[in-house]
Please model this.
Amino acid sequence: MAEAEGSDLNPFSHTDFDRALAAASGADVSLPFGGVPFGVKELERVGGWPYTEASTIFADRVSPSDQTSVTRLRASGAVLAAQTTASEFGGINCTSTALHGTTRNPWDPARTPGGSSGGTAAAVAGGLLPIATGSDGGGSIRIPAGFAGLFGLKATYGRIPKGPEAGIEPLTSVLGCLSRSVRDTARYFDACNGFDQRDPLSLPATGAWEEGLGTLDLAGRTVAILPDLGTARVRDEVAELVDRVGRSLAAAAGLRVVEVVPSLPPLRGQWAMAGQVSFIVDLGDAYPSRIDELSAEMRMGLEGGLARYNLERAASIEAYRRQLNEAMADLFDAADFVIASTNPDVAFAAEGPPPSTIPGADLIHEIGFSRAIMNNAALTAPSNLNGSPAVSIPAGLVDGLPVGLQVLAGHHREPLLLDLALVAERQLGWPKVAPAVTGV
Model:
């Protein structure tokens, strides 16, 4: 515990190790996660723990109760040991805040573990915790999984309830975890999924995903290999690795590779602007008097939304999402799986900002977000806007740093994604923690 408490990776915003040790000593190990130490992302509510949303605005706020997913984790026997750092309000894809400082990637401490679930990625890849929770509204589970060499599933929208007081708009964010194995992730979802009355858009409980692992017949199913999804700018070495490993995975699983020309509309400011209404709700009484205390990225996004959001803009967001949904449906009509890169490049500098020098990156920069953030999100956000599931699987290394292979599928097809990821884990393999942790 002392090693975790003082880690130079800075993955924790709060620790509860004394109570965790006491709970572990009396754990019922017959439960799914009996005695297993868990991290919980700081954007999620744990009773008695800080609930800051990684912002100085709420530095002194404490959650009075657990959210539904945390209650279910406790019931599964999980020992809640630490709160993992996030980017402020989950807004960007690196984890460096005024409140908690910079969280670092265990593969290279000069690099970011991504965001917004960066502390979770650092803690799990750094060997400090075996598993921790995350959330994904535009890639915030898959991006850190890709940067840190972990497995991350972004589930179908509503799979795990977000209540009480569940945020609804903009219908993109889901709960999940980052782990070292497919089985751990399947067990997490078995423990936490299922309808809850306080989240009216949550889905009915599924079957036992862990029990069903490896039982589905993947042979003959189709896969399209599109490293850039037709819209992003991906570094050549990353795209080549994703293509090569994707074809190896397809062969190992008996998939049939098909040629597909994607028609996804380029990601534009509609994706980011759609979240500004809920952001104002989250700020509560701190809006508008304290918005100057926000990070530059969050403040610029909010101010851009305030300046531009009107009825016509709301209509453009709706039109964009309809266009994207049709394009995603066309994609899944053409192939059972779509393989893409999780990120356009390997992890960038820990303190940020994301690099903005990708050649030809011409995505629209409407509300203050850098082109690099939009380019990264062009690979991950389509699944959020569509509500469909996707996973990031460790694919190998470029420049000694992890690259994630992302697999997308249609709604409610998580068991297929888990079984394909299981093939990758067994046939292709991946390191369970960063080499620095094991001395390799």
